[in-house]
Amino acid sequence: MIRNRQWFVRVLAAVMLACAAGTVVQGEDKKEQPEKKSGSVVGLLTAKGPAWLEVKADGEQKARRYVANWVGGAPQDGGGPDKEMVKTIKELTLGNRVRLEWKFDERPRVVKVEVVTDKTDKKGTVAGKLTAKEKNWIEVKADGEEKARRYFFHQGGSKELHEAIKETAVGSRVRIEWMFLERPRILKMEVIKPADTDR
Prior knowledge:
The protein is an alpha+beta fold. The protein has three helices and twelve strands.
């Protein structure tokens, strides 16, 4: 009887140890992946302060805040936000489309920012690849840009424009005329090179 009890206790202890080990392994599997340390985004400048700005990147639901780098040590030692970046942020206009390079150092920090499209530019022309289309908009990845940009129809769009877009396959190289009215809007589109339909 005693031997049976000792055997039972040993088996029970082994099972409990195995379960505990399994729990630790599962916990390790659930650890979050390390956050990305740097990158670049293209999007709309939605807000700014003396030493920060917020950019709503293409395809994102919400804007993200990026702060200027802190330089010069502690405040009592003369440290503070990077003066050059503070000056750059001050000169930016809300509503502009910007390209921003960032790094993660305690929080997202802006390394470089430049204006891609000034909202004061009410009209323009771009050439690039048609990457998507829907009932009320198209997306074009313009030459030199990292991501496609969405263009909405102006006042519903003309019949000719709708027909042209309907007949143009995604992947085609196009040239579009656009205007800025609350958001980028497509006025006209022409196909430079049709998509390769053989693939």
